[in-house]
Amino acid sequence: MEAKEIRERIRMKVHTGPTSGISGDKVQANLVVLPKKYAFDFLLFAVRNKKPVPVIEVIESGEYVSTLAEGSDIRTDIPKYHVYKNGEFSEETDDVSEIWQEDFVTFLIGCSFTFEQAVLDAGIPIKHIDQGRNVAMYKTNIETVPAGIFNGSTVVSMRPFPKDKVEQVIRITEEFPDMHGGPVHAGAPSEIGIDDISKPDYGEFTEYNEDEVPVFWACGVTPQNVILNAKPEIVITHAPGYMFITDLNNEAFQNKQ
Amino acid sequence: MEAKEIRERIRMKVHTGPTSGISGDKVQANLVVLPKKYAFDFLLFAVRNKKPVPVIEVIESGEYVSTLAEGSDIRTDIPKYHVYKNGEFSEETDDVSEIWQEDFVTFLIGCSFTFEQAVLDAGIPIKHIDQGRNVAMYKTNIETVPAGIFNGSTVVSMRPFPKDKVEQVIRITEEFPDMHGGPVHAGAPSEIGIDDISKPDYGEFTEYNEDEVPVFWACGVTPQNVILNAKPEIVITHAPGYMFITDLNNEAFQNKQ
Q1: Which tens digits make up the pLDDT trace of A228-256?
Q2: Which residue stretches, if any, does this entry annotate as coiled coil (chains A, B) (predicted)?
Q3: ipTM, 2 dp
Q4: Going from the N-terminus, what domains does chain B have, and what CATH number goes with each?
Q5: Which residue in the set B36, B44, B60 is minimally distant from A43, CB to CB?
């Protein structure tokens, strides 16, 4: 199915589930929507923290069509949105047209689905995918570089790999600098401030044995975490796992060495 | 002399001339200062047009110290500033402390002095430098990607090189992606909308003969040009040739292949 068709099925509430695995080789993106008065601080935060917040498109206020997705409508083409008000979760909804504001600026942010596909294509299995689970995500002690009202620590996603595959996985993911790039850490979770690896802050824990190494990537949940600290009056994001599907191919973001 | 000392001599009005050649291997930067209400549009313009507008630092409103330059004061450490009001040139001054506003956001933008040094270090002479002239700059038909109130065409700088040196010069300058990177054009000026090469829009013309090829780089004057189109009530820039000297070494921006 074409990406455009999938977006239409989402818009028509035919597809209402998570988007993992439904878009073939197409890039999926994280969503952050903010009133324009916060847009400079957030874009500067993204520029200063490119690994957790790799912006792939900014849709200016007054617009809701992504140039990366033909005929798209950012207000309806994601299966599930989260709305936050003054730093608190307000509602989950499948359509934000009714609450859309003229001054909203939309940020589309790269997603690890892109490098996961490249790892799978190299014949390396990814445990949480095989187990049909969500990836495990953790708050760390890795501080972001603050910008304006935005500050806080980096959220990471964790994927365990056999010791002899770790170097290859690092190399593959480094080829996607605009999709979180190479890992921020591999090895002991305590070194980046994770006290109990079995209790992720988001998602589900993936067990690993002593022949495997936990590898950690900067995660697109970081901006959500940081935005909630800043408590703007309204923010819209995608619901984790329910992403925006673009017309771009994953390969477009691959920098072959 | 240390960069810090040079900045102090500039602040004390001991050094009042252009900054070309006075900072050794230190990075020099273009300056753009705008009220915060324009900062999102300008940062987005820079993100979308990285070749002409490679931002190396953003100093947030309320601040005037660059983290790239110890003990600096962005209001006094440039020998000559240009102030524009409502899109028109207003005054040239050596100190903007008196007109500084709490809501000013400062952008430091990469400068071709960095890649020129690398070309010279490779033993390739640069004609306008040998002749003690300012580089020739031209408006082109290469459109920038608009952002908010900012739009317009790219300004380029031109340097002629012997035919058999062009490939090497291209390669060297491509190693500095945050300092305008490789050229946008080499050869016939008319292909990028320059009708009369002997009449630059800024700077001074450098003659060349038929064994030489004119090579064109995206230029840090582009943002000044675009800002004037947008007519914000006040903008401060450096005067061309009178740059901000940082503590960074040119090599810090070199991506060796």
Answers
A1: 889 999 999 998 889 999 999 999 998 86
A2: none
A3: 0.87
A4: 3-111+223-249 (3.40.1640.10), 113-222 (3.30.2040.10)
A5: B44
